[in-house]
Write the structure tokens for this entry.
Amino acid sequence: MKGFAPFVCLGILSSPVLANEQDPVVYVGAIYSHVLYEAGDFDGDLAAYGALLGFPVNEHFAIELRYLVGEEGETTDVGSSIDVNDMLGAYLRAGMPLSDRLYPYALLGRSKFELNGGAPGDGGKSGLSYGLGMQVSFTESPALINIEYASLLDRDDYELAGLTVSLQVQY
């Protein structure tokens, strides 16, 4: 019996580790966002791309970090322009699986934008972000596709909203 005890202890201690290996511990991905900028009469379509890093807490919640850099933005008729220099965001994702493949979720967090140009919002601004999305998974694959719409920053003189597509891999 003494020779069997270490194996029983090892089995008991390793079962939580084996159970956690089945669930993803982290996910990483590439992200593209079509950012809609509205300030008075000026509506701009801006583009940003970057990376995300997520940490699933359980089946329903995850903590997600995003970093995006922008492409050259739009110029108005009067010569002012705006573009996204970079964006940093931290979010809580909450969702409920509809099936093995579909996972709708809500997003709530904080985004910090660094905008360039002469339009309102130039410089670094941060604020509350919220949105809705749908995650689609593939059978027998760790890859996921997300599509979401979010209000990224809402100020008195301008608003930023984004339509985002991301490709993720779970580990």
